[in-house]
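Hypothesis: this fold can be encoded by more than one sequence.
Test: take the structure tokens below, design a sequence, compare later.
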């Protein structure tokens, strides 16, 4: 991949990351309005599901067969559970921790898990052994979370 392509993907990742505190703030307000963080999560996922459904209708009119869906291993669907955990945790934690601390902790958890997944090549990720530089990078993120929380 050339540098321009990589830069484009990095900008896309930054924009997607910027959407997370927006999503959290909106879903937290929805949870307050509905009186339940779980109902807010459900509504958020319904809106997201309908949005993705529309994109599929426009871009990929072929729907996979039921037999193909049930032939996949059961654990492959756990990504939806992870999404539900993330959205609901954000709704519950943002008002208590603030957006910066909460997202800093989320990112720390993501980086620690990612180090392990990359090191072992788990879940289909290419294998990238843990190096001192990678470890130091994650340690700096953890230190940053402590600085954010303290000040």
């Amino acid at each position: 991949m050339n540098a321009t392509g990589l830069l484009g993907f990095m900008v896309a990742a930054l924009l997607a990351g910027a959407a997370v505190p927006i999503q959290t703030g909106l879903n937290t307000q929805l949870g307050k309005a509905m009186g339940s963080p779980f109902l807010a999560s459900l509504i958020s996922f319904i809106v997201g599901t309908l949005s993705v459904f529309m994109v599929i209708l426009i871009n990929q009119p072929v729907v996979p067969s039921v037999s193909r869906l049930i032939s996949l291993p059961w654990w492959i669907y756990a990504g939806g559970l992870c999404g539900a955990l993330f959205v609901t945790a954000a709704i519950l934690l943002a008002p208590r921790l603030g957006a910066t601390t909460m997202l800093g902790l989320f990112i720390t958890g993501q980086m620690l898990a990612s180090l392990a997944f990359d090191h072992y090549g788990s879940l289909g990720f290419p294998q990238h052994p843990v190096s001192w530089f990678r470890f130091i990078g994650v340690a700096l993120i953890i230190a940053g979370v402590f600085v954010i929380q303290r000040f």
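Helices lie at 3-34, 37-59, 66-71, 78-97, 99-120, 132-150. The chain has a mean pLDDT of 92.
Hypothesis status: open.
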